[in-house]
Amino acid sequence: MPAIQLIVGLGNPGSEYEPTRHNAGFWFVDDLARRCRQEFHAEPRFHSEVARCQLDGNECRLQKPLTFMNRSGQAVGALMRFFKIPVEQILVVHDELDLEPGTVRLKKGGGHGGHNGLRDLISHLGSKDFYRLRIGIGHPGHRDQVVDYVLKKPSVSDRRLIEDAICDALDVMPGVVEGQIEKAMHTLHTQK
């Protein structure tokens, strides 16, 4: 049994949101599905698009909730309960204001830090003990500007930095799914 059975990318559905910073989680799972030569398909009972992915012989599910960011927990909770996936075997990938573009961090548990997708997940899953892959998008400088900022496209240079960070994280995913999470953390956290 893989250590991580489900990788959830957080974002908002729809072409108008696709290029926005808040969709960094979707960007990640889309890239992971491409690496696994898999495509997402709609799964209405889970309010999501889902795919299956083989990473060094370990299979895991990928999920993109279609409930909009603030209701992500509804979708993840439905899939998790159906497949009886323990919360500790879920990795949630999301944008992170407190990290600069080009930075990616892996951790287990913690609060929501004002992130509405995480807030809803914690509420629906009844636990904070899932893993998080935090993709840095930078901060606009003032909290009153956050909503506008996350729903806008990053600059070309920031997008390149975010994509580089996503590539770094994709490289450690086989180890993460297998359970070598400390090693993956060390790799990601010691990169430039």
Automatic annotation (TrEMBL):
PROSITE patterns on file: PEPT_TRNA_HYDROL_1 (PS01195), PEPT_TRNA_HYDROL_2 (PS01196)
Residues marked Discriminates between blocked and unblocked aminoacyl-tRNA (site): 12
Major location (coarse): cytoplasm
Site entry: Stabilizes the basic form of H active site to accept a proton: 95
Active site per the UniProt annotation: 22
Gene Ontology MF: a single term: tRNA binding
Any Pfam family matching the protein: Pept_tRNA_hydro
Subcellular location: Cytoplasm
Record flagged with keyword Hydrolase: yes
Function: Catalyzes the release of premature peptidyl moieties from peptidyl-tRNA molecules trapped in stalled 50S ribosomal subunits, and thus maintains levels of free tRNAs and 50S ribosomes. Hydrolyzes ribosome-free peptidyl-tRNAs (with 1 or more amino acids incorporated), which drop off the ribosome during protein synthesis, or as a result of ribosome stalling.
Family to which the UniProt record says this protein belongs: Belongs to the PTH family.
Protein's recorded name: Peptidyl-tRNA hydrolase
Species of the source: Thiogranum longum
